[in-house]
Amino acid sequence: MKPKKILSLILISALCLSCTACNKNSDTKKADKSSSVSESSEESKDDSSDNSSENNDSSSDKKDKIEKVDINDYFNNTSPNPALWKVTDNDSDNVLYMMGTIHVAGDTTFPLPDYVMDVYNGCDGIAVEYNVKALQSDLKELMAFQSAFVYTDGTDITNHISAEAYEIAKNYLKDAGLYNKLFNSYNAAYWMSLITNAQIMNIDNLSTDGVDMHFINLADKDKKQIVNIEKLDAQIKALGSYSDELVEYMIMELGEEDSTTITKDSAEELAALYNYWADGDVDKLAEESDIDEDSSIPQELIDYYNKSEELILTSRNKVMAERASQFIENGDNLFFMVGALHFAGDEGVDDLLEDMGYTVERID
Question: Between residues 36 and 362, which one has the greater pLDDT?
Answer without folding.
Answer: 362
